[in-house]
Structure formats: C-alpha cells, structure tokens
Design a protein that fits this description.
350 residues, alpha+beta, 7-stranded mixed sheet, 6-stranded mixed sheet, 22 strands, 40% strand, elongated
Length: 350
C-alpha cells in the first residue's frame, strides 16, 4: 500500500475592528485532518500580538495546532493609519478571509477586491473579502467631517401654570438631547421663588442668578423639571410668564389650570390653542330662551329664561333639561290639572 501524505491546510480569518482603538481578531481553522500543524502567519502592517502563548518571529506569528485541535484564535492591536494595504500570502498552506468591523466614527473606502458579503446576520455593516493568494486590498480610512449645526435640541416641552388667589405655581418640563457635555442656561421670569429642579428624576441643587438657571448637560437624553412660585394673583386677565429655553424647541405646550370658580371667556396666543366654546353655547341658549319665552305655560319672560339658561349652562344638558321640563309641567298642571277627573290619573300627574 502506498501512503499519500496530505499537506496541511487551514483557513485564516482576520477581523479588523476599527473603533476608538483598532484591534485584530485572528482565527485559524483546520481544514486538513490527522496531523500536527505548525505555520508562520504573517502579521498585518502595524499589528502587535497581545494574546499570551503566541510567539512572534520576524513579524510572523508562530502557531501550532495538535491533531485534535480544530480552531486557534489570538488577538492583536493595530496602529491607526490613514491608509492600510492587506495582502494575501502567496502560499498553498492556507487561504484568507478578511472582515471589516468599522465604527461610525470612521469612513473606509476599499479598492482592489470586491465585497463577498456586506452585512452580518444581525444586519450590521460587515464587509467580507475572500482574496486569492497574492491579491491585495487597499483601505483609505478617514474620519467623516462634522455637519455644522446645534449640539443640543429640545424635543418636547410643557409649561403647567396653576394660578391661585395669593400666588401662582408653575412647573416646566422638557426633554433634551445633547451630543456633548456642556452648561446650558435658561431664562426664567423675574421675582420667582425656585422650588425644585430635577434632571432625570434626580434633584439637583441649582441657584438662580439674575433670572438665569444654568443646567449641567451630559451627552445623551435628559428630562428636566423645574418648579417655582410667583406672586402673581388670579385676576380678570391672566397671562402666562415668558420663558426662554435658550434654543429652539418643538412640541411645546402650555396648560393653565383655572379654578372652578372662574369662567374662561377669551383665550389669546398662538393660533394652535384652546377654543372657548361658551360663546357658541350662549348663542344656542339665546335661541332656546326666545322659544321658551313665547310659550304661555310659564310666567317666565325671554330675559328670565335667558338668565336661567346661563345659570344652567355649567351643568350637564340632561340635568338642565329636567329643570326646564319641570317648569313646563308646572304650567301644564296649572292649566289642565282641573280637567283630569279620574283620581288615578290625577295623582299620577300630580
């Protein structure tokens, strides 16, 4: 019998992780069986092996795999450069596969090899290259230029005003997103007494200096809540206080909680705001009062019906209809009650 010796063969996978720090993950996978594998794998330009147990000689990693060893992995650091050239070793002992794991902080342009696959199973951008021996891949790496614009935006704000007979309580809530840490100031009304200030539901002791409140802003999203009290009393004309958030904002709203002892007759401000429905209701009440004033069942005049209707306008319509119906039935009872001769019908009507 003639024994045929099958040469060793492996697949070398290199994953280039380009983030704040550049690293390389190398995985050696056995493709031939039943023998010890000892190979010298060339390092990439600027690569430095950091894993224990891997000997580096003349910029080559000496790897050894036993007969039962299927996979061997090691990790390295990689120097950050503007241009990087990957070259597949011209050998029959292994084939190479390259992956690029590029952070959004880098922009990479490739030249020389087409991508075999562009994404990983999770859908992340993950270019994959399968070079033939001797082929090269040129990488041009740069940082994307920043787009000019604000570093902070306010996505939602709400001002809640509670006017009282002695003072007005106000709370301001808004959500902001910042791309970097900073100090941001907002302009509050004059003569207020600051009650509390919270950022992400944690109370932060802040001081009001010349009506300006300076907030410590961290990168990311934050929810801010500020409460204060002012000496403004509820009067016949109440106006909300003016606040300057310091930057343009969207989805802003103002809510005023008026005591039940007051009627809102007019509202002014932005076009998108509350609608006072009382005047349309008053027009309907005038028409109803004119109709009821023409009936002879009750001694009430049109003016008296109108005054009664205005008083009943603050209760549900069904309850107001009971009062009006009761007055009309009294008129019917006065005019036609004596005509009912049957005692059961008289008592039922009574």
């Amino acid at each position: 019998k003639t024994e045929i010796e099958i040469p060793v063969f492996v697949q070398v996978e290199r994953i280039l992780h380009m983030d704040l720090k550049w690293t390389v993950s190398t995985r050696i996978m056995r493709k031939s069986q039943g023998m010890v594998i000892a190979l010298n794998i060339p390092l990439l330009p600027g690569e430095h092996v950091t894993s224990d147990g891997i000997h580096v000689i003349n910029k080559e990693a000496r790897i050894t795999m036993g007969p039962d060893s299927q996979v061997l992995s090691y990790h390295s650091s990689l120097e950050s450069v503007d241009k990087l050239t990957l070259t597949a070793t011209d050998t029959s002992s292994w084939s190479e596969v390259w992956f690029l794991d590029v952070s959004p902080i880098w922009h990479v342009e490739t030249k020389g090899l087409p991508e075999i696959n562009q994404t990983d199973p999770a859908g992340k951008r993950y270019p994959e290259f399968h070079p033939y021996p001797g082929e090269t891949l040129q990488l041009a790496i740069s940082k994307p230029d920043g787009v000019p614009g604000p570093t902070m935006t306010i996505s939602k704000s709400k001002l809640l005003v509670k006017p009282g007979h002695r003072a007005t309580e106000t709370s301001l809530r808004f959500s902001l997103t910042a791309s970097r840490g900073m100090q941001h100031s907002i302009q509050l009304p004059e003569g207020i007494d600051l009650q509390k200030s919270l950022i992400n539901n944690k109370e932060i002791p802040l001081q009001l200096v010349q009506n300006r409140l300076t907030l410590p802003i961290h990168p990311g999203q934050q929810n801010v809540e500020i409460s204060w009290r002012s000496e403004g009393k509820l009067s016949s004309r109440t106006e909300t206080e003016r606040i300057d958030l310091g930057v343009e904002s969207v989805n802003s709203s103002i809510e005023m909680q008026v005591p039940s002892s007051r009627w809102i007759l007019f509202a002014g401000g932005p076009r998108v705001g509350p609608a006072v429905l009382f005047w349309g209701e008053l027009l309907v009440l005038i028409l109803v009062a004119i109709g009821l004033g023409r009936t002879t069942l009750t001694p009430l005049s049109t003016l008296q019906w109108l005054l009664l209707s205005i008083g009943l306008s603050q209760i549900p319509v069904a309850m107001a209809a009971i009062v009006v119906g009761w007055l009309l039935l009294l008129g019917v009872r006065k005019k036609q009650g004596n005509e009912i001769k049957h005692i059961v019908g008289f008592n039922l009507f009574q």
